[in-house]
Specification:
The structure holds two protein chains of two kinds. Chain A is mostly helical. Chain A is built from eleven helices and five strands; from the N terminus they run αααααααββαβββααα. In chain A, strand 3 and strand 4 form a beta hairpin. The two termini of chain A are 34 Å apart. Chain B is built from twelve helices and no strands. The longest helix of chain B is centred in the middle third of the chain and has 29 residues. Classes of the chains: A mainly alpha, B mainly alpha. The interface between A and B is large, with 129 and 111 residues.
């Protein structure tokens, strides 16, 4: 990141409002929001691709276009069907040449919550209802082929009409909303930027936890239980005197002396451990209660959760921040570091060991 | 699979290519098994079976959506292969759907791999942005999207020609430890994105709000019933905080004494 994104555009005169044709072209382009989706910036490049028709109209100065494109290449992720809401607001700010930290803060603050709303609206409501009904029509193809053939088309029609109406309305409405709010915002620009940054930084903090699913799967063996568990099972009589190592129950049933021989009690009978019992069932079988020692494992993730849930996402984000901000690492170097951690962590599993990932 | 002709292979290739792109872009509905089932049925000459298998696979995926950025077993490869297997091997639709699961898992691995690799393209995109080259950004998106479609199309076409045995061999040949490591790395890459945002957004006085956002999220996510709408709840809290700060700051500004104003009154 040799290039430092400035705080202000050099040309601060608001550009003429975007015409409906440009807005429509951006709605079309927003369909390809996830064209270059990846785990580092997620939808960033697709987002930039989507708003380019607007940005190139707004920023006629090449330096300003570079600044605008660069800050719009930062991490971006929202719900693909609701992205037009963010587009409208961000473009109204770009058009009025708001300060770059303000635009960035508004963008981050707006993209976060839309994910949950979009999932609820599309994946939990629209698709289950439309796909559920039309799937049943399709499955009955043997009895009524006509309605079965119609099923995929009904699904596509309903889903896409809803999708495009949502996209269209959000784009127009949020662009208008942003443009109208801009007057109030510029009067208190400094305070507004501060407030938007607070919300933005707050959202990044929330995303670190909500999108940060990284967990460890390590379970370390840690000896056996101190208090044996009394377990009742039915076994063959021959196993009673066989050592545990050979598949029997000797040490878990009888009190042993120092030589490993079974102690005799006052009546000369074999002495059982307290809690253990043997009840002969006949046919060389007995129901026994033996004192089983269960293996104990330490679940590292549970310990970490006890310190702070999501501590790994939190710590990794802060480490990467330090590397980027203080050690001048490039994002690509950070990506390689993450890749190395992921593969090295799983490597023991290739040699019969345990991967640190679940 | 003796009676597969070249035209069918080409059509399956094209359909998969379009469906693979559509699963993340464009209409995001053409790739659904209910649609691909019908199309595969038409190509292979058994519309009825295609519709039935597509409908069944669709019902199975309803509870398995790409919610919150998670990658479920891939419905593109799974749906297409279920229809292909049902028609070409004359399997019962339910059996075909189950047989397609290994292929769907393979599709899931493929997606993880592609999303990991294309992280490397972002520094290239950064350079295009610094040089203000809109057409390069556009090309980068188109190329990445086309390549993703091609990978899927090649995989499915190979299975279509090679049959079920090839699919199972390929799935068995992938070392699970490597996939585990790659998907763990994929899950961690977003922290680089967060760190970049922090670098540009956080000045000294803002750190507290980052910690607060994280802390509130930990609390909200602890309740299973709140983890779905978590970000909406968190946005309310964050908005209240920001709005309050805005009001206080603007009040301060209005009531602050005007420095350097007229002093002649005294």
């Amino acid at each position: 990141m040799a290039y430092n994104i400035p705080e202000n555009y050099s040309d601060r005169t608001p550009a003429p409002p975007l015409d409906n044709g440009t807005l429509n072209r951006m709605i079309w382009r927003s369909l390809f929001l996830q064209a270059s989706f990846n785990y580092e910036r997620m939808q960033a490049a697709g987002w930039l691709y989507g708003i380019l028709p607007g940005l190139t109209k707004i920023h006629t100065n090449k330096d300003d276009l570079a600044a605008s494109m660069s800050h719009n290449m930062e991490f971006f992720n929202t719900h693909p069907f609701l992205v037009n809401f963010v587009m409208g607001i961000v473009l109204s700010l770009e058009q009025n040449k708001a300060e770059i930290p303000t635009i960035r803060a508004v963008r981050v603050a707006a993209m976060g919550p839309l994910g949950g709303i979009g999932d609820a609206l599309f994946w939990f409501t629209l698709v289950p209802i439309t796909a559920g009904i039309t799937s049943n029509m399709a499955i009955n193809a043997e009895t009524s082929l006509g309605s079965a053939v119609a099923a995929p088309f009904i699904f596509l029609a309903v889903f896409n009409i809803v999708q495009f109406v949502v996209r269209f309305i959000l784009m127009r409405w949020s662009y208008k909303f942003g443009t109208e709010a801009i007057g109030m915002l510029t009067k208190n620009a400094k305070e507004f930027t501060r407030a938007a940054s607070i919300l933005g930084v707050f959202v990044v903090g929330a995303l670190t936890c909500v999108y940060g699913g990284t967990k460890l799967g390590l379970e370390l063996p840690n000896g056996e239980t101190n208090t044996p568990i009394e377990t009742a099972i039915i076994v063959e009589n021959t196993t009673l005197n066989t050592p545990v190592a050979d598949g029997g129950y000797k040490e878990e049933l009888y009190a042993l002396d120092d030589n490993g021989q079974i102690k005799k009690d006052a009546d000369g009978k074999d002495e059982l451990l307290p809690g253990a019992s043997i009840r002969p069932l006949g046919s060389e079988l007995s129901e026994i209660v033996h004192l089983e020692k269960a293996p104990v494992t330490i679940n590292i993730q549970e310990i970490l959760d006890g310190v702070l849930p999501s501590i790994i996402p939190f710590a990794l984000t802060l480490c990467l921040y330090l590397l980027l901000a203080k050690k001048q690492w490039t994002p690509i170097a950070c990506i390689c570091l993450i890749l190395a951690i992921g593969i090295l962590g799983a490597l023991p599993a290739a040699f019969g060991g345990m991967s640190i990932w679940p | 699979m003796g009676d597969v002709n070249v035209l069918q292979i080409v059509l399956i290739f094209l359909v998969t290519w379009i469906a693979a792109i559509d699963q993340f872009n464009f209409l995001e509905s053409l790739y659904q098994p209910i649609v691909t089932g019908m199309v595969v049925g038409l190509i292979l000459g058994d519309l009825q079976t295609g519709l039935i298998v597509g409908g069944m696979y669709q019902l199975m995926t309803i509870g398995n959506m790409p919610v919150g950025g998670a990658q479920p077993p891939n419905a593109v490869i799974g749906g297409i292969m279920a229809a292909v297997l049902a028609i070409s091997l004359d399997l019962e639709p339910t059996v075909a759907v189950a047989t397609a699961i290994p292929f769907a898992l393979l599709g899931q691995y493929t997606v993880t791999l592609i999303f990991t690799i294309s992280s490397g393209l972002m520094s290239l995109a950064d350079r295009y942005a610094e040089e203000a080259k809109p057409s390069s950004i556009t090309r980068l998106n188109y190329v990445t999207m086309t390549l993703l479609g091609l990978v899927f199309a090649i995989v499915v076409t190979l299975f279509f020609v090679g049959g079920q045995a090839v699919g199972e061999q390929v799935v068995a040949a992938i070392p699970t430890w490597l996939m585990g490591g790659l998907s763990a790395a994929g899950g961690m890459m977003r922290f680089v994105g967060f760190a970049i945002l922090l670098k540009v957004m956080v000045s000294g006085e803002m750190w507290g709000f980052y910690l607060m956002g994280f802390g509130m999220a930990v609390i909200v996510m602890a309740s299973p019933s709140l983890s779905g709408p978590a970000l909406i709840i968190l946005a309310f809290i964050g908005f209240a905080l920001a709005f309050w700060d805005y009001q206080i700051q603007t009040k301060f500004k209005q009531s602050a004494p005007v420095v350097g104003g007229s002093q002649s009154g005294i």
